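Could you help me review a protein record that somebody else here produced? This is what I was given.
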Amino acid sequence: MDKSKFLSHRLLGYGTTESTIEALSSAMNSDALYLEVDTRVSKDGVIYINHNPTIESKRSSLSIARNDSKRIDKFIQKHSLNTPKLDDFLNMYTKRKNKRQVLMLDIKDFGFEKEHLFFVNKYRLEKNIAWVSWIPQALLTLEKLSANSTKFLSYMPVNDFFANFTRNISIKKVPFVPIVLIGEYFYKKPLGKFTHGYQHAYFSKELNHELIAMLSKNGGGVCISKKILTHELIEFNKYHNIKTAVFAAEDKQEYKKLSNFGTDIIFCDFVDSELK
């Protein structure tokens, strides 16, 4: 298997549970070129490595955004969970043997870009970190703070049929679920109260010049669901020097299929024995 495009999605397969220090200690010394984890921020601004907006045990869950770190830490300790802070996670990552490896940090909460960047700079990992987010405002903020860093925008590309509808979506929450929609014309609009504890979805028919200029630098690109990937999108990205990262392959057969499709990076929910 060609290993050059392999990205370990949430470090799945490297530990007993995803996105833990245990999984990182194995993944960071493997042949995987890319690793990926998500960050969430507590009410008092402490950054945790966690995909969901909640930390979950077998019987209960706790919102990260609505609770301070003291209560979150007690919950983690009580239920013997392995949810690390970004500080501890990056400290561990400095001990890796694979110096070529890139760690992609997917920022889920807007407004804490300086705090994220602080820890990356603290451990001198600027050249080994790529920023990812569904929130264009977060990446644009990071562009002002760290213009030379690598950035990937996750978004929903739409066709002509949906173009007019999605352009005119403002910052709008979907009823009954914590998903906030961002229309094409509102990629710089303040998120208001929807900055913290939400999932975001940015829609665009075609990325504008400002976003292209940011993403085309330093090996950056876009992250796209495999379900809506097209040859036209890949060709557009290649023309603009933007990498296409796709999520998520479930096995080696699907990895090969997505690789042959022309993608540059493939999020994988499995670990191949050659890599591990």
In short: The radius of gyration is 18 Å. DSSP finds nine helices and 15 strands in the chain.
